[in-house]
């Protein structure tokens, strides 16, 4: 008799536990495009436009695009840096220019390896990320002189 009651209790406990839903994770925002990069101050920085949409989940509030850029420059040396921004989700395509500042060596014209991460979070700080590894072209800008601050 004890075996039957134990089995019934185990089944009831399992049913109760299955009824408790795990918290839902936010669906990631969609990365649409990144680049090309525009060299700033002879390679002391690179401005990279990133376009994304966070319309996959109506609970998304914050989007954080991050770019890690590396480029082989002279004599096998590597220029590298990271840049990011934080924006509110608008449910429409958003474009932001992210400035990547190199750690040691300046960036050059040419191709650079890029890892683009788009993290999006809801009000409960449940976040998801989309990660894309790609190559970006880096080119000199138009040289318009002093640019207005963003």
| CATH class bucket | Mainly Beta
Q: Could you report the average pLDDT, rounded to the nearest whole number?
A: 81
Output the CATH homologous superfamily. Immunoglobulins
Q: Give a quick account of the main beta sheet: strands, pairing sense, barrel closure.
A: 7 strands, mixed, barrel
Using the 3D structure, state the CATH architecture: Sandwich
- Assign a percent range to the helix content: 10-25%
The CATH topology annotation reads as Immunoglobulin-like
Order of helices and strands: HEEEEEEEEE
Distance between the termini: 76 Å
How many separate helices?
A: 1
Low-confidence stretches: 5-24
- Globally, the shape reads elongated
| Sheet with the most strands: spatial strand order | 2-3-7-5-4-8-9
- Compute the number of structural domains: 1
The overall strand count is 9
**Structural class by helix and strand composition:** mainly beta
Rg: 23 Å
User: Could you tell me the strand content as a percent range?
Assistant: over 45%
